[in-house]
UniProtKB/TrEMBL annotation:
Entry keyword annotation includes Transferase: yes
Gene3D superfamilies: Spore Coat Polysaccharide Biosynthesis Protein SpsA, Chain A
Gene: Xxylt1
GO biological process: protein O-linked glycosylation via N-acetyl-galactosamine
Organism: Struthidea cinerea
Pfam families for this protein: Glyco_transf_8
GO molecular function: xylosyl alpha-1,3-xylosyltransferase activity
GO cellular component: endoplasmic reticulum membrane
Protein's UniProt name: XXLT1 xylosyltransferase
UniProtKB keywords: Transferase
InterPro entries from the UniProt entry: Glyco_trans_8, Nucleotide-diphossugar_trans, XXLT1
Taxonomic lineage: Eukaryota, Metazoa, Chordata, Craniata, Vertebrata
Length: 227
């Protein structure tokens, strides 16, 4: 078993020029903090990792595994043609909220609507990054360009604070074909913040998840159930 340790400062140095433009749209702080770049690591992982690394699973720390993480690697085999990233849907109406202006101007849109037919956005707690596909996708790399980021944020009136998750969500509204949607059981989010902040009427449409949970995600410091 080979373990490689990557220096955060070195990674940030490589990342910053690639993601600097998107930080002002998807960071919590005002302006662009150099250190914030690390929250966009997944977006540009294919530009930073050695070419021989073709697939990476990136996960948050607040997870509890109920199955062997190896099984998640099998999901790479299910990527449709053109998909570069595997990611589960966001399980709260956070993006219903974020896209409020676009939704008001486009009342028939699926943007921000709950599953199965809507586009609720993504949660980046569990990510499958097909680095080889990311490197080869002309479309994906075009979307990293500052002018494209600017164009999409203007179209969707988007201002977020969740880093890579916001970028993937916005891109997914425009180009869903770039993503393989993981089943909710691979990233069973537990946070219920939005239930108590104006969305109790629709909350459960986003939050429900059928099936045996493989990974619990205790986001927003939510306790994870004991076995």
């Amino acid at each position: 078993c080979q373990v490689t340790v990557h220096d955060v400062n070195e990674l940030t140095e490589k990342l910053f020029p690639i993601v600097e433009a998107m930080q002002k749209h998807f960071s919590a702080g005002s302006g662009t903090y150099y250190s914030d770049s690390i929250f966009f690591l997944s977006v540009a992982m294919h530009r930073i990792m050695p070419k021989e690394i073709t697939q990476i699973i990136q996960v948050d720390l607040d997870l509890k595994y109920k199955t062997n993480i190896r099984d998640l690697f099998d999901e790479f085999d299910n990527f449709p043609e053109g998909a570069v990233i595997g990611i589960a849907r966001e399980m709260q109406p956070v993006y219903r909220h974020t896209f409020w202006q676009y939704r008001r101007e486009n009342p028939q849109t699926k943007v921000g609507e709950p599953p199965p037919d809507g586009l609720p956005g993504f949660n980046s707690g569990v990510l499958l990054l097909n680095l080889e596909a990311m490197r080869q996708s002309k479309l994906y790399n075009q979307l990293l360009e500052p002018t494209m980021v600017q164009k999409l944020t203007e179209k969707y009136h988007f201002k977020g604070h969740l880093g890579d998750q916001d970028f993937f969500t916005m891109v997914g509204m425009e180009h869903p074909e770039l993503f393989h949607v993981l089943d909710c059981t691979w990233n069973r989010q537990l946070c219920t913040w939005w239930r108590d902040h104006g969305y109790s009427d629709v909350f459960d449409q986003y939050f429900q998840c059928e099936g045996e949970v493989k990974i619990y995600h205790g986001n927003c410091n939510t306790p994870i159930p004991e076995d």
